[in-house]
Amino acid sequence: MTPRSGKDPKNARPAEASAPPAASPSPAPPVDEPLLSADEQREVFLQVRVERARVPRKFQNKTLENFETRRGKDYKEIVQMAKGYIDAFGRPGDVEKSPWAILYGATGSGKTHILAAILRELLGRGHEAIFYNVPNLFKDIRATFDGAEDLDEDELLNEIVDVEILALDDLGAEKTSDWVLDRLYLVINQRYESGRATLITTNHNFPDDLEKIVGSRIVSRLAEMCQIIGPFPNQDYRMAKANLQRRVK
Ligand SMILES: Nc1ncnc2c1ncn2[C@@H]1O[C@H](COP(=O)(O)OP(=O)(O)O)[C@@H](O)[C@H]1O
Ligand SMILES: [Mg+2]
Fold first, then answer.
1. What pLDDT shows up at residue 136?
2. How confident is the model at residue 151 (pLDDT cuts 50, 70, 90)?
3. Are the beta carbons of 215 and 184 closer than 8 angstroms?
4. What pLDDT score does 143 carry?
5. Could you read off the pLDDT of 165-204 as tens digits, one per residue?
6. Are 100 and 197 in contact (CB under 8 A)?
C-alpha cells in the first residue's frame, strides 16, 4: 500500500509558491467517439436480429452476394427471382405487400442459403421474422406435450401464426401424419387469412409432388399465394464441391 499521508517525503506536497507552472493539459480523448463505424454498428445489429429470428448459425452469414452464380444462368435466375421477391415487399406491417414464396428443388441446391439470404435482407429493412425447420417445429410441438419446452403448444403455434414473416424450411421432410398435417394446415390457413408473408422451402417438386405429401388443402393455398423461386438447379452444391476438392488433391 502506498502511504497516503504526507510523512513520506516523496508524497509531501510541495509548497504552493514553489510549484512549477502547470504543464498545459494534453487534449482529453474524445468521449463520444464510437468504437464502431456506422457500417459496423449496422452489421452488429443485423447479426443480433438474424440470431433472434433463429436462422441456424451455419446460414447466418449467407447472402445473395455470396451465392455463387458462375456455374450457370439457372443460378443467376434464382438470385433474380429472390431479388424480385424482396422488392415486392412493402414497409414492415404492410399486409398488402407481404408476398409469399416457395423455393423448391433438389437437396443441396442452395434453397436454405437463399432463404436465409432473403430473411437477412428483410430483417435489415426492419421486418420481423422467424425461421423454423419444419421437422424441428414438430419436434418442438411434441416436446410441449411432456413439458420439456417452456412454451405450451398454443403459445408456440400462436408465435408462428402471428409473426410478420414466417420461414418454414424443408416442408415435406417431416414424418407426416394427420396430426402433423392438421397443425400445418392451421398455421398456413391462419397466415393465409391474415395475409402474413410465409416462405417455404421443399425438396419436392411444386406443386404436384408436394401435394402428394402434404395434401391439396395446403398446396392449393400455397399455389394461390406464392411467388415461385425455382426450380433450383438440379445439382448438389456440397457434392460438387467435394468432387472438385477430390480432383484437386
Ligand atoms: N450457388 C451456391 N453458392 C454458394 N454456396 C452454395 C450454393 N449452393 C449451395 N451452397 C452452399 O451449399 C450448402 C448446401 O446448400 P443448402 O442451401 O443447404 O441446400 P438445400 O437447402 O437446397 O438442401 C450450404 O452451405 C450453401 O451455403
Ligand atoms: Mg435446406
1. 95
2. confident
3. no
4. 87
5. 999 999 999 888 998 999 999 999 999 999 999 999 999 9
6. yes
212: CATH? 3.40.50.300
Q: Is residue 14 part of a domain?
A: no
What is the count of structural domains for the chain?
1
Q: Is the distance from CB of 126 to CB of 169 less than 8 angstroms? A: no
Compute the distance between CA of residue 18 and CA of residue 48 in angstroms, rounded to an integer: 59
Asked if the structure places residue 72 within a domain, the reply is: yes
- Rounded Cα gap, residues 240 and 53, in angstroms: 30
CA of 225 to the centre of ligand 1 (A): 25
Whole-number Å distance, alpha carbon 108 to ligand 2 midpoint, is: 7
Q: Is 202 in the pocket of ligand 1 (CB under 6 A)?
A: no
Which residue has a Cα nearest atom 10 of ligand 1? 110
Give, using CA atoms, the residue closest to atom 11 of ligand 1.
Answer: 110
Could you tell me which of 118, 112, 114 has the C-alpha nearest to residue 136? Answer: 112
Q: Which residues span the domain enclosing 223?
A: 41-46+53-248
**Which helix (H) or strand (E) covers residue 188, if one does?**
helix 178-194
Q: What is the pTM of this model?
A: 0.85
Residue 1 lies in a domain: no
Q: Is 113 helix (H, G, I), strand (E, B) or coil?
A: helix
| Assigned domain for 237 exists | yes
